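Hi there,

I know you've been waiting on this one. I reran it after we fixed the sequence typo, so this is the corrected version. Both the input and the resulting structure follow.
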Amino acid sequence: MGEGLMLPCPKIVRGQQQLTEEQEAYAREFARERIAAMLSTTPIDEREAEAHLRAAYRADRWEPPATIRWFDSPHSFVQEYVHQYVQGNLIENNIGVGHVEESYVPVCLWLAGMRRAGEIMGVNVSTSPSDIVRIDGSICVPAFSMPLDERNIVEAGVWQSMEAGVRNRVWTGISTLHSGDGSAYILWERVRDSMVAFYMARLFAFLRFFHELFEENKLIHMARFNEMVSGYKLESGEARVVRKPTVLKWDEQGRLHNDSGSCIQYRDGWGAYAWHGVSVPEKLILHPEQVSRQDWIQERNAEVRRAIQERLGNERFVQLVGGVCIDWGKRGRLIEIDLGPDDPERVAHYVQVQDSSTRRHYYLRVPPSITRADEAIAWTFGLDARGYQPGQET
């Protein structure tokens, strides 16, 4: 809802015990708008974002930063700190062992704002979703529980998936660079900062809702700024800000997914690939024909192995790994794969199963001593062949 526009429902009043039907309907629409804005890849007006950020500093009695630096991706944002905390430290200490001091003075505007929330809007706010927000001691609303319809729930899951997926993608690229002296913790904090806007989105949407439907509050500028960026590190003299992605794709369940390219990509070209929420190598998405038998055998992550199976399809997958069907059962088949003479187990057995909820087929590894398909499926449920019933699948 823009400034000066008439609300489609009456405002919340002090003493009100619950939302009216009109207010609840507006809350649903409000949630939809906030989710769409957070997931938008449309370029923003960076001057407007900077104006909101400076206003947020002033609202909490801080001098606005002299410098606001924009980064094109979480990767470029974190690399700045890699150079500062890791590479410089390695050069200085030769063997990379030394004490790393953080040289910034964190402002934490949102946290400072929370401490003064009672003064600003008469609301005691906790960041725990299970806690209760009390307005003037008279109206109680569960924190972050604005009504969501099915579409909202799916799209809200996207930013949670994105926040976690990108954060882990960045960390994978730098986790081996730290010197073991405290820099790992510092770098992990910066990785989190690079996507903090998505982490904070629910809280700021909640506060913005009360700004519009109850009483205006000074946190509105931080809420609006947060919605325009991916992440940030706010310091007393400088603010470092990460731009939103230019590409963002997800499946019908709100999981990051794109079978033809990046599921998320930023302005500098950095991005990530995912198959129904599972982070996967670029090759699997762009060049699945190049995936080798060794790629699958050496992959330790079971979810990635499953993604490889699904991407290639069952028949092609079995051909790829050189699998031979050694038994058919009522619910699937058991295949044997020759691991070669250098592997201590020599052979591996995989049973084809079907997920009872999604109906998707995939293969699970079972002990090589199991030679019957029904026994193999039962084993995946911790049962023997006689005790296994298909209805027990969960």
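Quick highlight: The mean pLDDT is 74.

Best,
R. S.
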